[in-house]
Each structure stands twice: as C-alpha cells, then as structure tokens.
Design goal:
Blueprint (H helix, E strand, L loop, with lengths): L7 H8 L7 E9 L4 H18 L3 E7 L14 E7 L2 H8 L2 H13 E9 L8
Antiparallel strand pairs: 1-3, 1-4, 2-3
Length: 126
C-alpha cells in the first residue's frame, strides 16, 4: 500500500523548492473497494473550495480508462490536475486544521495514490 500523505523528506523538498511560479499537481487515484469513491468525493467537495481560496483551480479530472505504457496491474481509477499559484499556496493550504480534518475522507477513500508536482515549461526539454 502506498502512502496517502507525503513523508517528511518529500514535504521538505516541496517547501524548500526554488520554483516560484505556478505548480500543477498531477494526482493518480486508486479508490478503496466499496465506498472509497464516495469517501474521496466528500474530500473533493470540501477541498475544491480550499483550492479556489488559494487562487488555484481544478484544471481537469477524469476516469483513468487504460494503461497504455506501464504496468497494467497497477491501474488507476481517476486522474486530477490541480493548479496552484505556487508551491507556497499548496503548502499553506495543506497545513491548515480545516484541510487536516477534511483529509480524513481522502485517507478513508484511497487505496493508493501518486501526487507529482509539475512545473510549467516551454518545450519538452528540461
């Protein structure tokens, strides 16, 4: 089972990043059997308001239909792209008591997840 929260080192890397501009969080989600999707939905309903209060927005969300490249045994149920004005806004939002209370629904709903912080670039080169 993968972690549902970042470990301390991962969180510190995000906090200490030198990137200043917008960040898009790529979320790969695998729901727990049964009411996992409903639990995550309760988290989503509450957290969208928090995201918007930071100046962020949900850019895209959808069902993950097929693994084209990668391990077909590691399927995902949903993908969500969320943009924040910067990493600081994300850190501040996820550090509040309100977010922590809402996060319980995320933990109840997810079997596993991957969240990747992505920095916009021009062109495909690094």
């Amino acid at each position: 089972m993968s972690a549902i929260r970042p470990n301390e080192q991962q969180f510190l890397e995000l906090v200490n990043s030198t990137e200043q501009g917008p960040v898009v969080m790529l979320n790969l989600l695998k729901f727990k059997p049964g009411d996992g999707a409903a639990s995550y939905g309760r988290y989503g309903d509450a957290v969208v308001k928090m995201i918007e209060s930071t100046g962020g927005e949900v850019l895209w969300l959808g069902r993950a239909d097929q693994i084209l490249i990668g391990d077909p045994a590691e399927t995902w149920d949903a993908v969500v792209l969320v943009q924040y004005p910067n990493r600081k806004a994300f850190v501040e939002m996820t550090s509040t008591k309100e977010y922590d209370e809402t996060h319980a629904h995320r933990e109840a709903g997810l079997e596993r997840t991957v969240v990747i912080a992505c920095t916009p670039r021009v062109g495909l080169g690094v």
